[in-house]
Amino acid sequence: MKQSMYPLAVLIGGACFGVLSTFVKLAYGEGFEPAEVSGSQFLAGTLLIWLIFLFTKKQKISFKRFGFLVLCGVPTGLTGIFYYQSLQSLNASLAIIFLFQFVWIGTAIEFIIDRKKPGMKKLRAILLLLVGSFLATGILSQGFNDFSLVGAGWGMLAALSFSIFAYISSTVGKEVPPIQRSAIFAFGGLLITMIIFPPVFLADTATVTAIMPYGLILGLFGVTLPPLLFAIGMPHVGAGLGTILTSSELPVALLMSVLVLQEDLVPLQWIGVCIIIVGIIYGNVGHKVKKDHDQIQSAKAS
């Protein structure tokens, strides 16, 4: 694969997450609860990625390694659960501002664990993204009327769990084929979702039939594609740049709200979107993709 494709994979993975908020809003509008939305999302998404995995090349791994990778998939489930909880007490604009803090949290995690000090270019890119996100969410025009400390706490937990998963995607299980690794991660996300939200809705056929169209869309864009794309790209770009690239989520979320929900954006929000795009480009230009081939080959041999 061309080196330029690795950042693109992470960028598209982040954009996939931007699709979710629109369909979560639509599902809530139909009267569904977070447990039904999260449960159907992870059931559908995990089934999709495992169906794909069945038709791909597999690598034999130990039961202990499998269990460890399942555990590493837990943050994928927690991110959705935390974010959907924040949406219960915050409006979408405020909730996404707190989720968007993954932009700097990812770099902080990389510094704490790997002692990788961010350069000035990366810090400037993060600043651009944070300024752009503040403008893009429309807070200046809409205010903080619906602010809730509880909702803010859930949003920050979502940002933290998302950043942890981004770091895991860049460091853990790089010797395992991306589709296989993604399928195992998805299974971990499904398990934690089922533990926190027992799937009692599955006993009601009418509810399952009604929620599944949303579950399929949310599963595809929230469970199947992002972990797969991150598994392909993150090991080569690293968690720090990876979180910058995944900020493509916010512009996509806003565009979806305009195209699907018919919401209006004020000029400042469009300026914010443009600043985010500039920040992503600035942070990525001149970045050298990490060469992990030899490292992966040695891991396979062991």
Would you kindly provide a written description of the structure presented here, covering whatever features stand out?
The protein is mainly α. It has one domain (5-301). It has helices spanning 5-29, 34-54, 63-72, 74-89, 92-99, 102-114, 120-136, 139-142, 149-171, 178-196, 205-245, 249-259, 267-284, 293-301. Helix 3 crosses helix 10 (178-196), helix 6 (102-114) packs across helix 11 and helix 9 (149-171) packs across helix 11 (205-245).
How many separate domains? 1
Number of helices: 14
Task: Return residue spans where pLDDT drops below 50 for at least 5 consecutive residues.
Answer: 292-302
Number of β-strand runs: 0
Strand content: under 5%
Mean pLDDT, as a whole number? 83
Summarize the model shown.
The chain contains 14 helices and no strands.
